[in-house]
Amino acid sequence: MERHTPVSFIIPPRRFKKLDDGVFIFSKALKQEIINYTIGNTLPFPVSVRKGSHPEQKGFNYFRITITESMIEIWGESDEDIFTAVQTIKVMLTLCETDSLLTMEVVDWSDIKKRGAVLDISRDRVISLDSLRSLIDSYALVRMNQLILYIEHTFAYEGHRIINEDSSPFTKEEILLIDEYCAQRGIELIINQNSFGHMERFLKHDRYRSLGENPDGFTDPWGHFRTVDTTVCPTDENVLDLFTDLYGQIAPLSRSRFFHVGGDEPWGFGEGRSREECEKRGIENVYADYMNSLNAIVSSLGKKMMIWADFVMRYPSIISKLRKGTVLMQWGYEESHPVDQECAILEASGFPFYVCCGTSAWNSLSGRWYNALAHITKGLASAKSSNAEGFMITEWGDNGHIQQFPIQLPPTVFGLCGAWNSDTIDNLSVPVTLSNLFSLVPSLVCEGRTYSYCAYALLAKSLCDLAKIGELYGSHIHNTTLLGAILTYHLYPYNREAVRKAKGYTFTKERFAIKEVANLLFSSLSHIDACMKDEILFTLELLQFLTHYGAALLDTPGIQITQIRKDERQKLAESLELLSLQYEYLWRRRSRPGGLKESVQIFESLIQELTDPSLIV
Is the same domain home to 426 and 515? Predict the structure, then answer.
């Protein structure tokens, strides 16, 4: 529906019926109560709230709103359902800029019971509390009911200061505040403390080094030798002592009955200290025993354990060895990932499981819209047909969390709307939905300021157009785009072969698309000074830089930085120095200072490669 029609929604309801030609007029006080409503508040007469199951109830989170000329009746089974109904009224009032609503009946329910997002606050970006609140407010409007905070080292654990002293970690008091903020909006906060792979933030320190599977280093799946281990040794009893301590400190801070222990990508597992045991008993048995030991710790704290299911999918026999009730989180972020097959295995197991799709924002700088769209659509269909317990959208910070704050929003909104009602996604306009969200949560765009709906619409369109630029190259690159791979070409071996295959590519299509989005921002939004506008512009400028650097690199005989002309290297370095300063400024507007030094090394290391006299030919 159009924004200025008598009724507007974020997610169109399954049933909407106009009752007659009457209207209900809101007093100023009642309208404010609706707009500010959170769980725990009471709504005054003439609003009647009825909690309990309804004779016609369907699906999950069923609610019914009946508006007559004299009263509003809201029916829902839980506090969360009542909150969703009140939010629906708030959306209609706010988007329609009205003090009255038609007499109507609105009935809705969700396809999937648990709908959520995973937010990486460990690599390297620790989101500010204000920005996190903005996300939570927007998540609530698209009817999310679970939020997982992914943590490696960014909690202020007592007795472990060395791991997080420079990371601006969340404190106990802040986690309690976030948990309360979520609970007031019908969202369950779940903590994910990684406990197997991705433990390098601990293992790089001498105090923890001996807990590693390969303390002297290992060769990763791409053939690159790493001097710092990333995986703890599952047969070391001291590892369990560590997680008993960590879980005991952080798990009680969330009222959720779930606790996520990670378990994904244990690179080097079975190749080091646990090798003998794995050869004797089977790697799947060692893995299952370790997970069950972690589960015992989690259970002692009154929680149910969640784990990532990638290793389980490699060895499906593990499932039968796990403690009953373990929640398995299926994931895989490429369009080609076999979601259907994995869901079939998980459904047959009888274990509760989630389907997890990604924003495809990490490593890509501007997003991979077509990959995200296809994979999320497939993931939603699989989750629904296989009766998955939940559906999650994940936002990761691989390699420094370079992508700007708003890049995650288009795929997140698409996925969460689809998790509520997958029948809507074929006709869902993500730019319009984002525009509506910006109107309702203006702090997503800029803290402390509001703008016109037209400005929000243009920002939303720019953001969605930006998300398509990285895939104009046409050839699929796993987990990134060509421009993203070029930025880290000098650092990481993962995508070097894909970059070399692009030899001679000139980025003509990308430059045209960048110019189109930039023109939209400059010509139509020259009057606004919004954080989101700056973040989009920075991303465009970084992509523009990479088209020039990339074209120069791909034009060299050996695809080597040293073969780029000296004067061109100097110009590129100067451009990147300015971008690096801008990156630091934008970081501080949405994120805490910890982690910035590590993240900006991607830019600084490339500047060094471009300017080091020893490289000049």
Answer: no
CA distance 307 to 113: 18
In terms of Cα–Cα distance, which of 424, 330, 329, 335 is closest to 373? Answer: 335
Q: Can you give the C-alpha Rg of the chain in angstroms?
A: 25
Those residues whose C-beta lies under 8 Å from the C-beta of residue 135, and which sit 6 or more positions away, are 119, 127, 444
Pairing between strand 60-67 and 100-110? antiparallel
- Residues 344 and 473 grouped into a single domain: no
Residue 616 has pLDDT above 80, yes or no: no
Query: Which of 79, 109, 139 lies at the terminal end of a domain, its last residue?
Result: 109
Domain finish residue from 403, 428, 450: 450
**Same domain flag for 130 and 227:** yes
pLDDT value of position 588 = 97
Domain count, the chain: 3
Residue 306 β-bridge partners: 260, 327
> Confidence band (pLDDT; 50, 70, 90) for 262?
very high
Residue 253 has pLDDT above 80, yes or no: yes
Q: Is 3 among the domain residues?
A: no
Residue 443 scores a pLDDT above 60: yes
Task: Scan for tokens 């939940």, then name that residue.
Answer: 390
Overall pTM > 0.70: yes
